[in-house]
Every structure is written in structure tokens, then in C-alpha cells.
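=== Per-residue structure ===
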Amino acid sequence: MNITKDLSIIIVNWNVSDLLKNCIKSIYQTIKNHSFEIIIIDNNSSDDSVQMIQSNFHDVILIKNKTNVGFAIANNQGIKVSKYKYILFLNPDTIVCENAIDNMIEVLEQKKDVGVVGPKTLNEDDTIQIDCNRNFPNLIDALRKLFLNENINNLISYNFLNKSNYYKSGYIKNIQGACMLFRREVIDTIGMFDEQYPLYLDDMDFCYRTHKAGFKIYYLSTSVIYHFKRQSSKQLKDYKKKEIMIHIATNIFFRKQYGYLYSLLHKILLCIGSIYRISLLNALILILLPIKKEQSKFLVDILKKYLLLLRYSITGEEYLFDLD
């Protein structure tokens, strides 16, 4: 068997020691045709992540940050120390299935027009994560996120992209950041992750710039990973408020890729949507407060989130949270 050392695997970790351990184990168990290096950037975890890596995986290159610098900056740290011609960005809350990475590398070996490959991504219950094969955001998406609940929004998004697309391989627009395999040539051409994104959509920005540079993105439905979604981000302080950062990141994307006017229209929508949600929540709180105080407290927390989003839509202040 011809084994070549041509893969650098970059994993950004924050407080998911057990998941990270299983992720690394799955890498060693499933990559058979290529040797590789694993680079882990730990964003100042407070659990035993660092000790776990040092005790169990002596070959891993470990970068220990003194603060949580976020996803984009940490990935860029990994890129700078990586050595090989293919770079895999992998979330720590994933499990790699048999031959998934080997088969993705084969796509890059055989299809010279492809710059990036992504796998089919499954939830723990074997349902497909729709983000693994997706379009770029637009104002219609922003409207749905503001005025529909998450489950309905996901259902509509799933229907907008033909379901059969998740079961067949081919060229697509955008893949999920949980597992992205790049040619180094792409990164040499488009640059590294954009560090202006506080959280979220930096992977989408990466894919957009890949297209603009003339490289193609390929979705390989026969390569499968499991992704236990948002295991790190849900530990953040004011986790529910962190959902606002998706809206903020979306506006950064619109401004950068579609222009100032598009981002301004998005902020106007955010303002209108926030006022709508705030009015609705105030009414519900007034109704429930005398009879169900616990539910009222929950609604107050959501109200604070939309007040913060309203503040952003008016002031444009992007860094509203600490990542630790």
C-alpha cells in the first residue's frame, strides 16, 4: 500500500475533552492510506483537555492559548505550523467514519479543479445536518431567522435545497466548517481565515473566497462524519445571547461580500425584527407574570437577547460578548 505523509489535521478545542479524545481516536482508526499530523489548538480550556492530550496522544502538536481567541485566529495558528499539502479543518465534536478522509483526499488527487472537499455530516440519530451542503446567506434567510422559530426555519431551508442533493456527490457552493479538506494552494491564494468574524460564518467566508478565486468545492456523500453540534459554543456565558452573534457575523459577511448597501438593508431588517420580537415578548410577559413567574423569567432572558440585537442594529457594535 502506498502511504504518503501529505495531510495536516487542524482541530480547535475548547472544553470538550471527552469528545476530543473520541475524535482523535476516530482519526487514527479510520485513516488507512495516508499518514498525517494532528495539530490541536486549545483555547484556554478549563477542563482536562490539555492533560488528556499530553497523556494519550504523544504525536499530537499542541498549541496552548492563554485566552479563548476564537475559531478563526486559532485555525490560523494551526495553518502557520502545518507542513503538508492538504489541510483538514475538523471540529473536536466529530467522529470520523471509515475511509471518510482517505476518500476525500482521493477526490483532490483525481479532480484537479477541486480546491475543497466536504463530507456528508450526520447527527447522533443518523439524520443529515443540512449545513453540510448549503447555499450562501441572503436577506430572505435573514428574514426567516428573525420571524420563524428554529425548527420551522430549518425545515424550510431543507426544502429549499433538494433533499436528493444530500445523497449524491458533486460540485456545490458551500460546505460546513465542521470538516473541510483544503489544498494548501487554495489557502496560499485566498489567505487564511478572516479574523474579523467574532464567531460563526468564518467557514462560509472561506468557501465564498474559494469560489471567487476560481477553485471548486466538492461534496462527497460517501464520506461520512458524525457531528455533535455546538458542544463548545453552548458552554459560553449567556449562550442564548450568543445566537445574536450569528446575525452579527451574517452582517459582516454581507458587508464584505455583497457590499455596504446590502448590509445596511440587513441591519434595517434586524431592527424591525427585533422590535417585533420585543413587542411580542413584552405582551407575553405581562400576561404570564401574575400566573407563571418561572416562564416569565425565561421570556425576560429572551427579551434581553433581542434588546441586545436591537442595540447592534442601531449602533453597529460588533463585539458584544467575551468568548470565555
In short: The first strand starts at residue 4 and ends at 13. The chain has two domains: 4-227, 259-313.
